[in-house]
């Protein structure tokens, strides 16, 4: 009743005409009346006004929501995005194949340029996909196809000397069953399992691509001072790996945050630093040479990332 009383017109709440006083009795006010009057602004009228105001407000959508709205979460959109992503990845590989044919870069440098660029460029295309359930699996088609290619080339079932030359250390096609196969498997795993909302996916790809790739390039040119526990690794290469992996991880954290996929925090930045240092220490250990740093680096990033994130 108090709510309705707050809504009525001031004319009706004014004192009634004299003749009506014979039939009306002034209402008695209880001690709780002032409290009820104080709560009158929260009455029905106020709630209606507030609901109208709230309904009139519009929240600015994030970039991720805008992409999802434009895409409609449709399977056809994600299939198109997967085709574009796979096309760019294959074009990038073809580009480095052509450079290897022409001898533009030495074989080791060409292999590391492929190692650095393919995974990092692939991450740039993740925002193209919708928030649909099948989006990460469709995005993983591109590196998944590369797994099949590495297997076919590494077993000799398919021939492509230019690709083998651009992705192997010595030109032996069987090498593709190790490092390049681990590389494609890592990116496929990060995409299909963790996707763009997880810092673990960022740490996996960035430490493998940027960190491990830069370590070899810098180590071969500036690595005169070797590590005491591994004469095949240098201080310069290890420092470059930790810095490159960390900076790439923070850069992609900002990138995905701009699309609304991830919330950047100082804790996450510190976590990326710890993961990069741990991956660098494992990569510099002789066990990485015996196994393969394309296996030990992402495995370390995954295990440490699980503990931190």
UniProtKB/TrEMBL annotation:
The keyword Plastid applies. It comes from the Eukaryota. GO terms for molecular function: kinase activity. Keywords: Chloroplast, Kinase, Membrane, Plastid, Transferase, Transit peptide, Transmembrane, Transmembrane helix. One of its GO terms (cellular component) is chloroplast membrane. The chain crosses the membrane at residues 109-129, 135-158, 201-223, 235-253, 265-282. InterPro entries: Phytol/farnesol_kinase. It is found in: Plastid, Chloroplast membrane. It is a multi-pass membrane protein. Signal peptide: none annotated. Belongs to the polyprenol kinase family. PANTHER family: FARNESOL KINASE, CHLOROPLASTIC, PHYTOL KINASE 1, CHLOROPLASTIC. This is Phytol kinase 2, chloroplastic. It comes from Urochloa decumbens.
């Amino acid at each position: 009743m108090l709510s309705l009383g707050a809504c009525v017109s001031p004319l009706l709440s004014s004192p009634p005409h004299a003749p009506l006083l014979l039939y009306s009795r002034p209402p008695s006010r209880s001690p709780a009346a002032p409290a009820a009057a104080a709560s009158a602004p929260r009455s029905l009228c106020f709630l209606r006004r507030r609901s109208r105001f709230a309904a009139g407000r519009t929240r600015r959508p994030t970039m991720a929501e805008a992409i999802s709205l434009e895409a409609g979460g449709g399977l056809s959109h994600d299939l198109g995005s997967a085709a574009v992503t796979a096309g760019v990845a294959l074009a990038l590989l073809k580009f480095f194949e052509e450079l290897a044919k022409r001898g533009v870069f030495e074989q080791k440098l060409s292999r590391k340029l492929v190692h650095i660029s393919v995974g990092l460029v692939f991450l740039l295309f993740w925002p193209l996909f919708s928030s649909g359930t099948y989006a990460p699996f469709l995005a993983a088609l591109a590196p998944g196809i590369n797994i099949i290619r590495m297997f076919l080339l590494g077993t000799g079932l398919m021939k492509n000397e230019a690709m083998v030359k651009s992705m192997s250390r010595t030109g032996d096609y069987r090498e593709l069953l190790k490092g390049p196969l681990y590389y494609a498997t890592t990116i496929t795993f990060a995409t299909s399992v963790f996707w763009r909302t997880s810092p673990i996916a960022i740490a996996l790809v960035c430490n493998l691509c940027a960190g491990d790739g830069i370590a070899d390039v810098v180590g071969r040119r500036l690595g005169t001072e070797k590590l005491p526990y591994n004469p095949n690794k240098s201080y310069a290469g290890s420092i470059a790996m930790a810095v490159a992996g960390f900076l790439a991880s923070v850069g992609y954290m900002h990138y995905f945050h701009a699309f609304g996929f991830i919330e950047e925090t100082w804790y996450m930045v510190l976590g990326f630093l710890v993961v990069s240092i741990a991956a660098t220490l494992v990569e510099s250990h002789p066990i990485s040479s015996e196994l393969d740093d394309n296996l030990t680096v992402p495995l370390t990033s995954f295990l440490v990332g699980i503990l931190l994130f």
